[in-house]
Every structure is written in C-alpha cells, then in structure tokens.
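Inverse folding, one chain.
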C-alpha cells in the first residue's frame, strides 16, 4: 500500500456497488445530492445518470482535478474537508462513501440544527452505524426528533478496493415527516 493511500485512507467502491447504492437511495432527476468523499467518482457516475444535481466534495487535490476533467459542467466539484462542510440552504440528499476518519464529524454536521438534509445514505464503519441506529450517536437526544436512522443494504468488505479493514454498513438517515417521530424512538439494533 502506498504512503499516499495510507495517508488519505481511501477505499474505492466498485462500480456495481455504487450503482446499487444509488438505486437503493431512490435518487430522482433534479435532486440536489452531495457526494462526500467523491474520490474518482464511483458514486458520482450513477448519481449523474439518475439525473441528480451533484456536488462532489473531495479534499485530495488530484482527485478533485480528475473529477473536474471527467465530468466538466455536469457536476459541481468542491475541494473541501468533509468534516468542515458548508451545507446547502435548500433541501438536499447525501449519497457518500466518505473517509472513515471523518464519519462522526460529517454525520453530526448533517443532522445539526438548521440542516436541510432530507436523506443521507452513507457508508460508515459498522460500529458507527450500530451506535447511530441504536440512538446512542452523538447528540441523538436532539436530532432523533427530526431524523430517524436505520441500516440499509448490507455492504461486504469485498465491495471496496482495497477491502475495508473492518465491517462496514450503509447508514440511512431520513427526516421524519412534519408530524415528527411516532412515539418514543425505538431501538433498531
């Protein structure tokens, strides 16, 4: 493994799995979707094919430049740290395979007060997904009145190159309907 790959902690999602995850997310033409940790565009391709208005967030300078060359004006590329991301002021979706090191910071930002997040489908380490789904995620007493978290389709380690070092999961966070959560939050794991 090269020093560059180790430093950036990148696990490339296969083309087939990227297409499956975007289909599962139910992206519709015109949806504003953030692809956080876009890498070389594994998720960006099926998002564009689904008709989404894609904002690809990528900190690595060469990968950001590659995204700009590859997609041109079909997407917006933002070279930024995903943990310090400015969110859209209109409703948006997230479909992402972010660096695992920034997962908690990203999730906290997505569910922060004032966020216009409609739904996020995010690949995260298994322990993070379990914590968020069980209602033990950071700030859950605050955000669970606005959002529900559940597990999406199981994602095998083999869906990545190199394989993810430990178990991963697809964490889905969705905004509750206007009336809020039904009764008390229930444990899902």
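Residues assigned per position:
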């Amino acid at each position: 493994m090269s020093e560059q790959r180790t430093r950036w902690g990148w696990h490339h999602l296969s083309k087939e799995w990227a297409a499956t995850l975007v289909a599962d997310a139910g992206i519709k033409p015109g949806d504003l979707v953030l692809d956080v940790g876009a890498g070389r565009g594994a998720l960006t391709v099926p998002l564009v094919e689904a008709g989404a208005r894609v904002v690809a967030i990528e900190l690595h300078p060469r990968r950001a430049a590659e995204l700009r060359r590859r997609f041109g004006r079909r997407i917006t590329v933002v070279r930024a740290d995903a943990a310090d991301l400015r969110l859209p002021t209109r409703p948006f979706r997230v479909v992402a395979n972010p660096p695992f090191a920034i997962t908690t910071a990203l999730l906290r930002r997505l569910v922060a007060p004032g966020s216009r997040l409609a739904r996020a489908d995010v690949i995260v380490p298994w322990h993070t997904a379990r914590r968020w789904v069980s209602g033990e995620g950071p700030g859950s007493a605050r955000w669970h009145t606005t959002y529900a978290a559940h597990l999406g389709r199981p994602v095998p380690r083999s869906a990545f190159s190199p394989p993810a070092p430990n178990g991963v999961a697809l964490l889905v966070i969705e905004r509750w309907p206007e009336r809020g959560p039904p009764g008390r939050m229930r444990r899902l794991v």
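Strands lie at 12-13, 32-36, 53-57, 76-78, 92-96, 117-125, 147-151, 160-161, 168-175. Residues 89 and 114 are 9 Å apart (CA to CA).
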